[in-house]
Amino acid sequence: MSACKKNNTVPQPEAKPKYLTQINRINGNNTTTTTYSYDDKKRLKEINIGASTTTFTYILDRITATETINKNGNAVVVKIFNQLNYVDNVLATKKTSVYDGAGQLVTEVSNGYAYDDKSKLTETHQEGNVVFYEHDADGNISKEKSSSSTYSYTYDGKASMFANLNSAVKKIGNQLQFSEFYSKGNIASSSRVVGATTTTTTYTYQYDAEGYPISGTSSSGNTYTYTYSTLD
């Protein structure tokens, strides 16, 4: 009779989700720091880039507004307020109001959005101008085309540094001008075509044991570091 062998393997705890809290972009002697903070529900609450602060307002788990304040010292230089309107559970319109430091309205524009049958963004409309979007097999935006330029993107196939952002902000990241929120991977290359001129930037990353980017470089000469927290 053969002896039974005891399995002494100890189950390993599941890794906790990590949330990006800081990016440092270094170019020569200049460093630009972007910080991300979250509320008690682990929803993105605020982004700080130098003298610019963007805050997100939620009703339940839906973003209803964003506000960006740019300062010079303690003085407000410009305030940008986005009011978001949803139809059938997708963002239908965004009204952007820009105010000067005295609180006077300077400009106001509205964007409209169109989607395919899988709720992927296909068009942005603003005062007669249209931007068209194409997606790759993973659902990432692979191309943005307007009357004046075309942008193309490829991705690294790894987990995005924004992988654990709350879905309310991820799915409308592109509409809020935070297109990096939307993708499942990290941008490996971006190309901009204007007329006969093409400008391409490539990115490489180093990853931690869980697949999150922890540093990177770009062909334009920037170096990046990424910091995360489990928000415990």
Give the biggest beta sheet: 16 strands, antiparallel, barrel
Radius of gyration: 21 Å
Mean pLDDT over the residues: 92
| Overall form | globular
Helical coverage, percent range: under 10%
Name the CATH architecture.
Answer: Beta Barrel
Query: Structural class given helices, strands, pairing?
Result: mainly beta
Query: Which fold name corresponds to the CATH topology?
Result: Porin
- Number of DSSP helical runs: 1
Main sheet strand line-up = 1-2-3-4-5-6-7-8-9-10-11-12-13-14-15-16
Low-confidence stretches: none
How many strand segments? 16
Give the SSE order as H and E letters. Answer: EEEEEEEEEEEEHEEEE
Span from first to last CA? 51 Å
Oligomeric category: single chain
How much of the sequence lies in strands comes to over 45%
Number of domains: 1
Briefly, what CATH class? Answer: Mainly Beta
Q: Can you put this structure into words, describing what you see?
A:
Helices cover 2% and strands 58% of the residues. The protein is globular and about 65 Å long. The N and C termini lie far apart (51 Å). The relative contact order is 0.15. It has a single domain (19-229), classed as Porin. With 232 residues, the protein is mostly beta strands. Strands 1-2-3-4-5-6-7-8-9-10-11-12-13-14-15-16 form a 16-stranded antiparallel beta barrel. A hairpin with a 5-residue loop joins strand 8 (105-115) and strand 9 (121-126). This is YD repeat-containing protein.
